[in-house]
Automatic annotation (TrEMBL), chain B:
Complex and partners: Part of a SCF (SKP1-cullin-F-box) protein ligase complex. May interact with auxin and auxin-responsive proteins.
Keyword tags: Auxin signaling pathway, Nucleus, Ubl conjugation pathway
Transport inhibitor response domain sequence ranges: 100-145
Gene Ontology BP terms: auxin-activated signaling pathway; SCF-dependent proteasomal ubiquitin-dependent protein catabolic process
Pathway where this protein functions: Protein modification; protein ubiquitination
Gene3D superfamilies, alphabetized: 1.20.1280.50, Ribonuclease Inhibitor (3.80.10.10)
PANTHER family per UniProt: F-BOX/TPR REPEAT PROTEIN POF3, TRANSPORT INHIBITOR RESPONSE 1-LIKE PROTEIN
Biased composition (Basic and acidic residues): 9-19
Ranges of residues in domain COI1 F-box: 40-79
Native species: Elaeis guineensis var. tenera
Name the UniProt record assigns to this protein: Transport inhibitor response 1-like protein
GO cellular component: nucleus; SCF ubiquitin ligase complex
Amino acid sequence: MEGGATYVSDLGNLKATELRLGLPGTDAPEKPTPENPRGSKRALLEANEEFRGKSKSPEADPNGQEAAPMAKAQVVGWPPIRSYRKNSFQARKAEAEGAGLLVKVSMDGAPYLRKIDLKVYKGYKELGEALENLFKCFSLGELSGMEGCNGSEYAITYEDKDGDWMLVGDVPWEMFISSCKRLRIMTGSEARGMRSSP
Amino acid sequence: MSEDEEDERGGGGEGKRWSPDLVGGRGGGSGGGDPPPFSDQVLENVLENVIQFLDSRRDRNAASLVCRSWCRAEAQTRRDLFIGNCYAVSPARAVERFRRVRALVLKGKPRFADFNLVPPRWGAGFYPWLAALVPAYPWLERLCLKRMFVSDDDLFLLAKSFPSFRDLTLICCDGFGTAGLAAIAEHCRHLRVLDLIENDVEEEMVDWVSRFSTTSLESLVFDCVGCAVDLDALEALVARSPSLRRLRVNQHVSVAHLRRLMARAPQLTHLGTGSFGDGGGGGGEMEVADLRAAFAASRSLVCLSGFRDLAPEYLPAIYPVCANLTSLNLSFADITADQLMPVIIRCHNLQTFWVLDTVGDEGLRLVAATCKDLRELRVFPLDASEDSEGSVSDVGLTAISQGCRNLRSILYFCQRMTNAAVATMSENCQELVVFRLCIMGRHRPDYVTREPMDEGFGAIVMNCKKLTRLAVSGLLTDRAFGYIGKYGKLLRTLSVAFAGNTDLALRYVLEGCPKLQKLEIRDSPFGDAGLLSGIHHYYNMRFLWMNSCKLSIRGCKEVARRLPHLVVEVIRDKLEEDDVEAVEKLYLYRSLAGRRDDAPPFVEIL
């Protein structure tokens, strides 16, 4: 923007790589963001002008980058899709991309749940340690529940794809993370019941 | 299957006809004053006997305005009460006037709340209404709530207070969880309908399905309940419900379980599947064949939905029922046109079809080729973001318009559109009542001509003479709104986003559309002048919503001053506002109840 006429030819390439908010081929200054309604009218008019200008530009990409030259920050609630629908796909998308396997973890008596990414852990031991860390503020104590809880009142269970509640640690780790939907740290007598069965 | 299902027939008319002179002066009522003399009493009895046959609420509203005795007779015989805005009238007033209500529909938050534009705890709590309903309507049978806050305690109270209670429908509500559902199941012994549609349900992990005490269940819809249910209990419930016609389960119900449920209920007409794949269990071909047999045995199925976690090789299982289907919802199934083809070519009786844009223009062409009686089409985006590729375009829209001449309602998400395609649809589909086009990238023009989308939408309002609902998008100038104001004479609902240039646009609409009931606008450059141009009309509307426009507190105060029966709410998300003058969110609505007393701190009522 500061480059005077003498520099343009020399630094023509540099200008092309300059990072700005604006369509290529324009010298318009940075546009205000959509969150600021006061300036948006003028910006919109300028945007309209730019579109007309842009259609004559050979660089114009007919398919993409046609949005108004405002900040491309995520706008709340646009496009207008209900979160019910968005959430249905996001979970699957994340799984598909191997971006992680987020599952909720609840603990009996805790006022809120946590979420962890199962793909981050290499095995049951690491998982156990992570859970201990997460819930230690609720005085979890020793949570060595994978190979059989000794001395603690907790049992770590998970809900599998069929909707059944299983004790964590019975199946190989890989099989576990592919079928685990959510985790629940059970306390008290329920926990004793789960652990005592062979 | 009712994403934003509006009662188009009833239109904007509310349970309480908005007429301050007649009703207001008499304190709402069917009471008041000495009883009429004998002959008049006879006349009233006759009137009641006649008026009781009136079903449509618009007819009833009209009848109630004729004179006092008609108003009384109508109030005595109204069984179905529709309250389009829970804040438009106080519960006390409603129950005072209508003494014999058996069914109530109550709507709360404005529709843009679905897109996170209304802060949580804004309002629309059900409890104040419930507290009035309990003593007033002991024989209440049916309740439908949309966009209300309903707590578990409310559901407990509801379940215990109405011995004849039959139908509960909750749409886009929040605040309750499985504990509340358990109460409904347990205490509503004559429950016929429990329809939970797109609610935000707290996952309390309370088993509710095993608590049902009714044997007359006709409809159970719970696909929005996120936690698993006791599948044995569900099967037992289905087995003891001979009247069950509609069942929509959530994604925790596997195909294996689905087969068992279908075997128990071969009389089902509406089925929503759970997950429609093998779920890692390796079911394979055997399972698909068994599933297909289950569908073959369900001779009454006319409506199918669900299809979560779809494995495409399972789709052939539904072939046996395709020819009978009038409604198919594949909008959670990520499939291509090739995968859609063998299904859709069998569905020649389809009237309602919801699908993902992954089927592309080619998939839509297939739909157009087969579904000649299609009335409603919704095409949702798999990737709902502005920068997404977009898999359908003007090509698909044109194909649909050429094949489906009976189309009444369309919702179409895309990234590329042309005025020509929209105009073609306006010419081919003369029956259109609802036209909602969402070009996801903001301010996108016609991608071929680079013009604004004015002419396309103009053609829609000009040619589609029955149009009552319109949602616009893309690059639009004031001209588009000029068309809407000039031709949209039956328009009742209008949704605007990122459109228009000046206040003129808003003025065109407010001055030109006499039937306008609901106007929702976001991120458009309309200011006080535009707002004030609607003063003559706001009492005839259910509401106006505007966010991220150019309104100022002065303009809003002016409206509030000139229209005392309007509630004008200014909603501030961030309490520390730089600019106290600017109004970020405005929600105004007519009301007989005056300013509400449950407004949270971030709502200022002018």
